[in-house]
Amino acid sequence: MCLLWLTGGWAQSGSGWRWYQPREPEAPKWSLELKYGDFEPELEDFKTFYGEETTNHKAIAVGYKLLRAVEIGVEYGQMHNVGVGDLPLNGGTGGEVDFTVNPAHAYLLLRGIWGEDQTCVPYYGGGITRVAYQQKIPNQPSRSGNAEGKHRRYGLQFLLDHSDISLASEMETDYGTNNTYLFIEKHHYEADVEGIELGGETVFVGLLFEF
Questions:
Q1: What is the pLDDT of residues 155-164, one digit of tens each?
Q2: What whole-number distance in Å separates Cα of residue 122 and Cα of residue 110?
Q3: Which of 4, 72, 117, 145 could form a disulfide with 9 if both were Cys (CB 3.0 to 4.6 A apart)?
């Protein structure tokens, strides 16, 4: 009897008895990423104006799986800093400058996944980038605009479902989440505006939810 429950069983229909085989669960089609990391900009003199070599970078991404190992998606991020402005008359710095960068990416991602219970999944991807930026300095005209470029990313995803099976079951029941991963990612993008590089490199840590 236990074997019948695990592998199949007999079911009665209007025309009599027939063999019933449980359907395999469908592979997830959608993914949602929430991530946070340190961005190291390629902008010259960044540390001079903002006091540190890196800044916080938060992002959200939504992907659709063409195949289990092939995904396309979009990502939107934000970086915001407040630093000191440039004083051209004396060659020093002073005042306050408010600088915001919002990179958006469209990507193709390849994942090295061979089974739903795979604990560690490597991945690599890249695509096109569009960056919106805005700079505000008191008593000066603000500057804003867009720049286009490209990006690449790679990392490792670690399946969390086995670490807490009851929580994984609740996530699937309440939110329809098939799998949850913790991941670490290295992400680099390039975007140039008037000879000034707005790109750089981010090391992300995040959560991936598959539906």
A1: 999 999 877 7
A2: 9
A3: 4
Architecture of domain 26-210: Beta Barrel (2.40)
Please tell me the distance from the alpha carbon of residue 99 to that of residue 113, in angstroms, as a whole number: 40
User: For residue 151, what are its two tokens?
Assistant: 């990006």
Domain boundaries, the chain: 26-210
Distance CA 148, CA 182 (A): 30
Low-confidence ranges of the chain (pLDDT < 70): 1-25, 85-95, 167-168
Query: How far is it, in rounded angstroms, from Cα 32 to Cα 62?
Result: 5
Question: Over the stretch 65-95, which tens digit does the pLDDT of each residue have?
Answer: 999 999 999 999 999 988 876 544 344 555 6
- Is 151 in contact with 107 (CB distance < 8 Å)? yes
